[in-house]
Amino acid sequence: MSVFGLPDRAYELQRAVRAFVDGTVIPAEDGTLARNVDRLDEVCSELRRKARTAGVFAPDLWEQWKGSRLGWQVRHLVLEEVGRSPLGAGALHCAPPDMPNIDLLAAVANPEQRVRYLQPLINAEVRSCFAMTEPTPGAGSDPSMLKTTARLAGRRWVINGHKWFISGAIGARFAIVIATTDSGPTMFIVESTNPGWRIQRSLRSLDSHQLGGHAEIRIVDCIVDDECRLGETGKALVYAQMRLEPARLAHCMRMVGRAQRVTELAQQYLRRRQSFGSPLAELQNVQTLVADSHIDLYAARLMTWHVAAKMDAGESVKQDSAIAKVFVSEAVCRIADRAVQLAGASGTLVDEPIGQFFQEVRPFRIYDGASEVHRAAIGRRVLRSSHELADLDPLLMQG
Amino acid sequence: MSVFGLPDRAYELQRAVRAFVDGTVIPAEDGTLARNVDRLDEVCSELRRKARTAGVFAPDLWEQWKGSRLGWQVRHLVLEEVGRSPLGAGALHCAPPDMPNIDLLAAVANPEQRVRYLQPLINAEVRSCFAMTEPTPGAGSDPSMLKTTARLAGRRWVINGHKWFISGAIGARFAIVIATTDSGPTMFIVESTNPGWRIQRSLRSLDSHQLGGHAEIRIVDCIVDDECRLGETGKALVYAQMRLEPARLAHCMRMVGRAQRVTELAQQYLRRRQSFGSPLAELQNVQTLVADSHIDLYAARLMTWHVAAKMDAGESVKQDSAIAKVFVSEAVCRIADRAVQLAGASGTLVDEPIGQFFQEVRPFRIYDGASEVHRAAIGRRVLRSSHELADLDPLLMQG
Amino acid sequence: MSVFGLPDRAYELQRAVRAFVDGTVIPAEDGTLARNVDRLDEVCSELRRKARTAGVFAPDLWEQWKGSRLGWQVRHLVLEEVGRSPLGAGALHCAPPDMPNIDLLAAVANPEQRVRYLQPLINAEVRSCFAMTEPTPGAGSDPSMLKTTARLAGRRWVINGHKWFISGAIGARFAIVIATTDSGPTMFIVESTNPGWRIQRSLRSLDSHQLGGHAEIRIVDCIVDDECRLGETGKALVYAQMRLEPARLAHCMRMVGRAQRVTELAQQYLRRRQSFGSPLAELQNVQTLVADSHIDLYAARLMTWHVAAKMDAGESVKQDSAIAKVFVSEAVCRIADRAVQLAGASGTLVDEPIGQFFQEVRPFRIYDGASEVHRAAIGRRVLRSSHELADLDPLLMQG
Amino acid sequence: MSVFGLPDRAYELQRAVRAFVDGTVIPAEDGTLARNVDRLDEVCSELRRKARTAGVFAPDLWEQWKGSRLGWQVRHLVLEEVGRSPLGAGALHCAPPDMPNIDLLAAVANPEQRVRYLQPLINAEVRSCFAMTEPTPGAGSDPSMLKTTARLAGRRWVINGHKWFISGAIGARFAIVIATTDSGPTMFIVESTNPGWRIQRSLRSLDSHQLGGHAEIRIVDCIVDDECRLGETGKALVYAQMRLEPARLAHCMRMVGRAQRVTELAQQYLRRRQSFGSPLAELQNVQTLVADSHIDLYAARLMTWHVAAKMDAGESVKQDSAIAKVFVSEAVCRIADRAVQLAGASGTLVDEPIGQFFQEVRPFRIYDGASEVHRAAIGRRVLRSSHELADLDPLLMQG
Q1: Which terminus of chain C is more solvent-facing, meaning fewer CB atoms within 10 Å of its CB: N or C?
Q2: How far apart are CA B35 and CA C390, in angstroms?
Q3: With contacts defined as CB-CB under 8 Å, which chain A residues touch B164?
Q4: What is the secondary structure of C268-316 as a DSSP string?
């Protein structure tokens, strides 16, 4: 048992996931999948079948740790391993938006919705998406600017709006849509066969390897029964927040995994390569870049673990998870950038893991709250509190 | 006449180039050209015809300023405008590798070579490439590791080697190849129809919009006459250095142009967009990012101008141009990164100018000398000099 | 004539100043003068006598270049040399607050005030101070918060207020005080013998080597004749702004001089010192720190020169000088920090030039406008302009 | 019990220390003590008496947790509280060099030495110092350059050498001196009454508030009995390394405490102060600086805790403690710098806690291994390991 207090079987699980990722997922990597939505879906479906056989299908893994108060700490071990490959989360069925959608439906869906939407989603029989973000002048970082509306007409709702960057939309069976009603922002489940749900285009984003891509959607006189309302009217932003914290923590875990991998790949390159009469690995400037990435990895992991441990303990992580999101998203971008630099020309190839991660990681400083928004909020929370230090534990960031 | 001492007609020229870029080049932009080598060639050919008509064909422009001791300062004005579009340098025929190859051939080629290679290249009737870089364990940052060989067999040379990241190779009429002979590294002109010159693959690099792409080349028993030797045997590294300084300065100029453009695009976005109850343009965190990009642009331009002015004055720019290369390449990467952040989700679209520049600019910190290599060299030059300050002019970096 | 277009005699002057600073000023340095207001005054008085004899007394130097449109560019050469020593500006009589006060009085004072205050100040017969800054809740970064008042009682004004960080106050013959009147903020000349002018304490600031220290002042029922009003009522902030831009540019010049010197001192140390089997000068991490300081020096000098050249050309430097202030103040702090690191333990000695500069330079990021205030203003100016680029000269920062 | 697994009584202890520091130590602070070696000694002696009475005398505290496998984690809680005041560690008798000297003597001293040196040191009846560092060309960062020699003459050693930056030397009863013998570097206990031990001068360092100051020492024909040899001959560097890891971890703990305090002081200032029409606390640039300090504090604490927990678990912390040292020393410098900036002019006062910490913290990036030395070593350890990841625990930095 390490200083983190996790039992041996957690590490056994981690080893199993690592073995599957190394032996099955990484060999299936192919740079051209980056923005090929159809092929990516096929490849990941096949990998999911193998993951199930290998006993590393994520929903099954989470099931085992339910109620153990180690849930997020174990997810941490798994998600970091999974994150080593851009195909990993799809392969083990713990990729967004499905994974946070499962958590959300598990918390909010009614019994009929659980049968119709949650269970097939857990089983990876279908995919889903989460439709919140809107183009200007709608809701970007600021959800209060929501322009999509839902109007009650008898027992049915008529939804109209414009969404974009809806990850996973292409091929999804259903979407969780946020729209404003008379009672405030409300969530609805919209099936993709609904004629009012129209995928306008697939957006080519730096953030590639997304199952179902990133789509721009028009919602036009989209009629849904009140049974498709998810949770209470007017509660959508509360639910979205509930979904967001774990979703961004999971991102941190996966991204640290990839950051570790590209650092290892760069190191392998450096051990082989000579320049100006020395192995690159013997140059101080190279050692310094490697050291900086390991310093970033160390801090990123400890923060991620700490937020996970607090979530497991049922403590509030509002401030801590915002800090972790800012730090980790920036740290993994720095690490990706250093890996490119360390690998030299070969680091600039867009279809190789390093060049590919350099692109893919960049949007993480924007989605789930841009760094600038989080920093202002973190500082404001500190400055508006009436006292400096509520809790004496110096390890529990207060201020 | 501004503080930089350039005559009015230099600024008139700049305005003409700006008008052509705005009116003709930018409207022809198309994100999908980024790595489409064939289409890019066609589009740029067409634009070059228009540039000639508009009187902004670069070789003609340079001709006018020859001998005026303002050559590089005028190039600066032109290249920054040209750089605003990823198609600009191709459109005005001042893109690498042709532009520095023209400078090199003008300095080194013999009369026959001038007729056969230089003149068609100036006229944009053909394209060329420069084949120096080799994959591990060959010559990357360190040219002394050259593995390509040229062996004299009678009056002919037999060249064998492996090159990669040879920009512009696809569709080039000829290559300037560096190979080691008994007398040291030597340059040869190899025509692409030579059966020993084999394009193995087109490399997909972050650095897109390269006319002729980036190729991996095998040179296999490639036979060339001694007439194809460029300059003296054993002098290739001297010539390469001669070519490199202006080439990297020209890169700085073009890249600052693009950095200016993406900053403007981000600013236009910020002026339109609201968030959390304020226009984004009124948020201090946004203003600060904008300010930082303008600070970087200011310094980058002044350095670029200063190196150009010293080159025009015939002064050595060894240290200054190394400093400018490091600073400018890093500054434009920071600016690209800020533009992505400022433009939010729309900044992450890979085919739009901001997301596209974010990728394209990254390799600049590696090619023409990685920042780490330059920093060590800059520091070493300072520390090995026996005195602190040779020249009292505080504006002439000594130390 | 260099690329900067300065005539030879400017560089001759620079050499003369350098010789005086090296031969006379630097030998008089003594770390214990840092916060010893009385001794510092004595030492500088003595040095001023020698400077006059050597023909490098600054007011005389400026006189020669009046009307030549090279005024600020020549000051640049002189002030950078002078800045090499913490005693330099005092020794040549071009230290704040006297130097900018002279500029201000030359522009605004009436004939009687010129005789009584300006001329003795030019001659260094007296010292002066500038009393604007107030403690909370008065005017710090934001001059509109001015709490000091001046009430007209017949032909006389009664001033009351609280000022602090009034540099040069101890031993000054007179102060230029800003106080609010019915017509708005107004400047007054208050003689230090006025019983209403009370020096409450000398503040010990990181910014040491200030002639006349930094004082906290109480102004209590301080009665002055209307003849002591400087310029028009209600115009104090306009005059203060007029004084501020040159004052902060002069700071940039002097601080770059010191930054150059501590970099040279660190380099001398590195050339002598061995560690882990190599001369420190041969370690890449050391070379990189040295390179970074030279990159910063290069950019800092070019910006400072450019603002000076624009001022000489009568152009507005509002945006450029704000950018230069932010960049230079931060660059010299980074350079000071690197010099400490490069000099190791000996760099931490508070009375030696490196450790001393590390402290002294820090407040420069706060005074004359904190970096955060300037950045917001720089960004705001860009974002509020209706067009992107007024002037096509890429070298003239617009945006 | 928090996620860190510490029992309640650890937090009770922390609260008691906090109460003593707040109620007794902080009220005794006085900026003029910074470099007043004699007064500082008196003030701390008096505080130590009170600490004993209050039951927070550190040696007594450590005693209680011996053998509990929580030793370093409890020290973490205590040392962070203690570190809030520059007088704290002296007041509770857990300041260097005595605290690490106690640890060293406890591990290495023979029974006679324990009685004669260790026990009085634990009781705070005497002070001690550790004499390793030498001026150029001796041992600075690189202990292999040791120039001090010890020559055996019969049963006695004759030591000659030159040491500097010997913290705590003034007023120390004895020194632990490292000198080279025929068998390699060896430790000796030298009493300060030995005529061969000569304090040459007290060095004024940025690192103030050091009990016993920082001295330059000449060791001249200093004769000591072989009974004064500490441990085995030739083992000094092993012992020094043993002493160094805990010593630098303890520094991290104390420095984070001070960083927290100056951040709180800056926050109190920001809540009170207005500028440009808003409370400073409402400005995004201010919130961002505050957020950055909290991000740094969060990471710094987690790293410090993690190294402490691994030491308690008996695991090797070679790489982790080097990473923590680099990160924490740089983070606390950034935090100090931000506190100065946030507090504006009042942050530059050298005798106030913020301005004082800004100076004091700077040398931490140099002593206990300069960042550059550590980074090269961290990178080298990674690059020389034959495999990427020995242990699957992603939380245990491997590479």
Answers
A1: N
A2: 34
A3: 345
A4: HHHHH-EETTEEGGG-HHHHHHHHHHHHHHHHHHHHHHHHHHHHHTT--
Q: Tens digit of pLDDT for each residue in C371-393?
A: 999 999 999 999 998 654 433 34
Say if CB A146 and CB A180 are below 8 A apart: yes
- In one-letter notation, the amino acid at residue A21 is V
Q: Is there a contact between A204 and B349 if contact means CB atoms under 8 Å apart? A: yes
Cβ–Cβ below 8 Å for D285 and B283: no
Instruction: Spell out the residues 6+ positions from residue B45 whose beta carbon is closer than 8 angstroms to its own.
Output: none
- The reply to whether C329 touches chain D by the CB within 8 Å rule is no
User: Is D284's Cβ below 8 Å from some Cβ in B?
Assistant: yes
Whether the Cβ atoms of residue A179 and residue A159 lie closer than 8 Å to each other:
yes
The secondary structure element, H or E, covering residue C174 is strand C174-181
Going by C-alpha positions, the residue among C264, C255, C266 that lies closest to residue C300 is: C255
Task: Tell me how far apart the alpha carbons of residues A120 and A105 are, in angstroms, rounded to a whole number.
Answer: 12
| Closest chain A residue by Cα to residue D7 | A393
Quote ipTM for the complex.
0.95
Candidates A80, A270, A383; nearest CB to D287 = A383
d(CA A206, CA B359): 9
Per residue in A280-310, pLDDT tens?
999 999 999 999 999 999 999 999 999 999 9
What whole-number distance in Å separates Cα of residue A361 and Cα of residue D40?
52
pLDDT digits (tens, 9 = 90+) for B202-236: 999 999 899 999 999 999 999 999 999 999 999 99
CB pair distance less than 8 Å for C303 and B305: no
D285 near B CB under 8 A: yes
Task: Give the whole-angstrom CA distance, residue B239 versus residue B230.
Answer: 10
Closest CA to B381 of A294, A312, C295: C295
Whether residue A398 is predicted with pLDDT greater than 60 in this model: the reply is no
**Does the distance separating the beta carbons of D375 and A292 come in below 8 Å?**
yes
Rounded-to-integer distance, Cα B289 and Cα B269, Å: 14
Q: Could you give the 3-state DSSP secondary structure of residue D264?
A: helix
Task: Write the DSSP symbol of residue A349.
Answer: B
Stretch D181-206: mean pLDDT:
97
- Over residues D237-278, the pLDDT tens digits come to 999 998 988 999 999 999 999 999 999 999 999 998 887 778
Partners of residue C285 in chain A, C-beta under 8 Å: 284-285, 288
CA distance B325 to chain D (A): 24
Contacts of B59 (CB under 8 A, 6+ apart): B93, B94, B102, B122, B123, B124
